[in-house]
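Researcher: Before we compare anything, I want clean individual predictions. No alignment, no superposition, just each chain on its own. First chain goes here; please echo the sequence and then give the structure tokens.
Model: Echoing the first chain and its structure:
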Amino acid sequence: MHKKKLFYFMALGAVIFFYGCLARPVIKKTDDARHRSQNAEIMRQVAQRAQTGDWLVIRGYHGVDNLVANATGIPLSHVAIYNADSQRVVEAEGRGVHLSSLAEFVDKAYRLLIIRPRWQNSRNGLAAWQRARKLVGRDYDFLGTVGFNYPSRYYCSELVVSIYRPWYRGNEKFPTVIKPGELFLYDRIILSSG
């Protein structure tokens, strides 16, 4: 039975991959001056409004971002957890869980949302960030993106939700695959860059 389920998910993944690659064109970066101006404005907004522990959810330019947006039907494709003091994020991508500067993260964003998770408060944002920081170096959970989660691996939205586990209220229910574009369901949008 397990092999049959694995085959099903692999076939589904292949269909999603081809659909994602062919359904819509990849969003392309604008000219350099316009892109730099957009980045500067997003960075300014993040510096003014985001707190340590907030989620930064983006629609990126990469082909994988197109795949995620098409496969989920939501125009958002990636997420990281933010540290306001260091201006860094922890994110999970194909190369695994790693640190990036806010500038690097914003540079790959066409659109950005700041989401404040419902479990975050003035006392635990830094602790959540530190939990994410300790996961740097872990492998990416490729099979988790199709429902086969491995406890020691993480994909982006799985990472940002799991670091708040100590503060869950006891009635949390999550889908098998947590989509970046559905993270607003876990509390409120502080900023949408449009």
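Researcher: Okay. Second chain, same rules.
Model: Second chain and its structure:
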Amino acid sequence: MDRLTEMEAFATVVDQGGFTDAAKKMGISKSAVSKHVSSLEARLGARLLNRTTRRVSPTEIGLAYYDRARRVLNDAGEADALVTSMQSAPSGLLRISVATDFGVNHLSPVLGEFLSDFPEITVNMVLNNRYVELISEGFDMAIRIGELEDSTLRARKLTETTKRMVASPKYFEEFGRPAKIDDLNDHKLLHYTNQSNGAVWKITAPSGEKRQVRTSGWLSVNDGQSLLNAAVSGLGIAYLPSYLYANALNDGLIEEAMPDLPVEKQGIYAVYPPGRFTQPKVRAFIDFLVNSFAEKGPDAW
């Protein structure tokens, strides 16, 4: 007999507490269930069930075997679900969490193309500037930038952005330009509070040495665009990703504070709940973003 079927029959008898209910659950006859269990016991050379006229219960050996058998059956079920999901068309509601500035500037413009490619998917994109708990808050995925915190979440790198210190020409005229990293301690710094290390700037010196600048800063905000606006207004030096400052830099509204420093790079990631397989709608959107961002090229970030 089929080993997996024998295992399923035995586990179902334990789950249901008897052969009659197990037969109903499996959609086969009671005698067929009994035959599967008897065949399993004969093959293993052990009695797995205590049978009385009133009830059926697992023996000590049977209980130990049940725990392993249930894991095997669950794995088999997930394997079947994986194949089914990979062959089915992506569909359903896709809930995405993304930082406001990145969502407005880079996700919103491409959503139309994605929805056209996958008409069975509907998207709920939530723009916010806080760290969301994907599972407890009901999100399918999130877009996160920079160092990922230790997590059980799965992640896939979509692209990367560069990060530089910038300020307005007006600011440099009034306060001067820092010549070395230590000079930053004497300047007005603008911090992005949404990052866990918002008050700490990690900088690479020209020598390649990794440095950290710690200061409370003159202004802290939880929105990247607001931080850029503050830098453009001459309020201080901001440490921003290029997808935020690129246009302002090209328009001469801001300048690099220390152009001789090595360029810092940050990854842009799709993160999603753990599991043995990824939902088709999530996989479809991540694949779409990877291709879309690759077409734009590295200069877009």
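Researcher: What stands out in the second chain?
Model: The CA atoms of residues 41 and 109 lie 62 Å apart. Additionally, The first helix runs from residue 3 to 16.
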